[in-house]
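Q: I'm writing a short methods note and want an example of a predicted protein-small molecule complex. Could you take the sequence and the SMILES for adenosine-5'-triphosphate and return the bound structure as tokens? Please keep the output block clean; save any remarks for afterwards.
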Amino acid sequence: MSMSTAIAVNDLSFSWPSGSKVLDHCSLNIGQGEFCMLLGANGSGKSTLLRLLAGLLQSQTGQVAIQGSVGFVFQNPDHQLVMPTVGADVAFGLVEEKLSFLQVRQRVSESLAAVNLAHLQRRPIYALSGGQKQRVAIAGAIARQCNILLFDEPTALLDLESQLDLVEQVRQLVKTRGLTALWVTHRLIELDYCDRAFLLDQGRVVDQGDPQRLKQQISSIACG
Ligand SMILES: Nc1ncnc2c1ncn2[C@@H]1O[C@H](COP(=O)(O)OP(=O)(O)OP(=O)(O)O)[C@@H](O)[C@H]1O
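A: Understood, no commentary inside the block.
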């Protein structure tokens, strides 16, 4: 079966002006409809890679090809939710698009329903749990019709129950809507939810494939 490529990274390198090399001839491919995870030690270049994919940073050498539009979900939702209420925040992401009032209302309610938050549309952001805030950020990306979702340690601030709720929800969204997702994590239990995983070390993909194999390998390194 051939699968079309949603994210292609080819021989990508990136250094900060200070000279430290963060990505070093990094390559990976992700097919449309895949839920992939990216693992690696602190400083291995995971966040930098996501920022290059999202166009928030420019690479010096190598290529990035993205089929579609990218939505980004950060570790701390308080850095990305800007409006006072749930519905207003999702609508705010649509200001650049030429939509009628009714179209905006439709997109907001449809995207909140997709993350099971339809009942919280009028709720102030400050009154949400961490997991609910992350779902508002995801609804924002869905409202903008992003087909590629990048997650930078989205569960780092969540307790175990909300962590597993979120990753399960993202898996369902990816599978029911044919989205593509790349999810950075340090929490190995989350590997149970993805299709494929990549291990980054010193700015290069050093291993990739079956998440359960990678999980065993990483936990044996961590314990050994
Ligand atoms: N704005 C910046 N200027 C200079 N160096 C930076 C900047 N941002 C990150 N770095 C450095 O780039 C390297 C890679 O950082 P990056 O955040 O991509 O790693 P990471 O794998 O996401 O790590 P973590 O798991 O800790 O989030 C680190 O050594 C970091 O100190």
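A: Remarks, as requested: The longest helix spans residues 160-177. The beta strands are 5-15, 21-31, 35-40, 61-66, 70-73, 148-152, 180-184, 196-201, 204-209.
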